[in-house]
Sequence to fold (312 residues):
Amino acid sequence: TLSAQIRDHHFDHILLNAAGVMCQTTEELDQIIETSNTGAVVTKSATTAPRPGNPKPRYHEMQDNLGTINSMGLPNEGFDYYLDYVLDKQNTTSKSIFFSIAGLTKQENIDMLHRLQDSNFNGLVELNLSCPNVPGKPQTAYDFEATQAILEEAFAFFTGDLGVKLPPYFDIVHFNQIAEVLNQFPLAFVNTINSIGNGLVIDPETDTVVIKPKGGFGGLGGTIVKATALANVRALRQRLNSSIKVIGTGGVTSGRDVYDLILCGADLIEIGSQLAIEGTPVFDRVTDELTAILKAKGYDNLNQVRGQLQII
Ligand code: DHB
Fold:
């Protein structure tokens, strides 16, 4: 009953890892696939060349499970490493694979999309337009013209199942503007939200920032971003073509959080911060909590919940 579909890709479970968490190495990726209550695996956003990422400490968990702050800086093993992995793995796993790419320039993204197009990869591709942590590189999806330009170039040749990872928006006009861009393209999905970019967390004992890169500025995730995630899923579901599926990401620590994102219209759900905090047991726990909520409400199918948020 907790299944979903994007085009030809079937998901037996709606929960996935969010890109960036437990997905940098083949061992971590295998772990996500082998966890029973995941529907797919998402690879760490790749750049053409391997990157060490930003100096450490670059990830911090706030007190009282309020959330996390990170400025990883795209540490990854490079495009070839992930392509080798997925081409091998797609023959042996029944779970879907999302290949995430985050080129530092438009051309780098187009080059990686060409290489995916020319490969035998048959999974989904997530174009990450929202990494907030590379010094000097703004989040592409806050620039509507740049977003339009890269999607025009991509869909001129790319025929696979392509979606985009978006940053959170905070203005109704911006919801309208990004939806107007995205609706021009045959996107398979939109994934919302990436971290809330460039927050700042202070250690009260030492009066210092808690992460080293960028003077302490970093992307926020976890509990404190949930309301922003719900708003972005809801606002985009209300505006996007029905052919574009919505992956809801942000602030999921419980089954109720998943339920709320589905009420807002999400098709699949990703867990980032809480997966980093709790490890793969989070998928079983959250699934059990969600199943209990559905049972208590007398539902046997997520379609009875999806998009059914009530207004007053
Ligand atoms: C990183 C963070 C992100 O939010 C993202 O989308 C891609 C990369 C990072 O810092 O590694």
Remarks:
- The chain has one domain: 4-53+74-198+222-304.
- The mean pLDDT is 98.
- The radius of gyration is 18 Å.
- Residues 281-297 form the longest helix (17 residues).
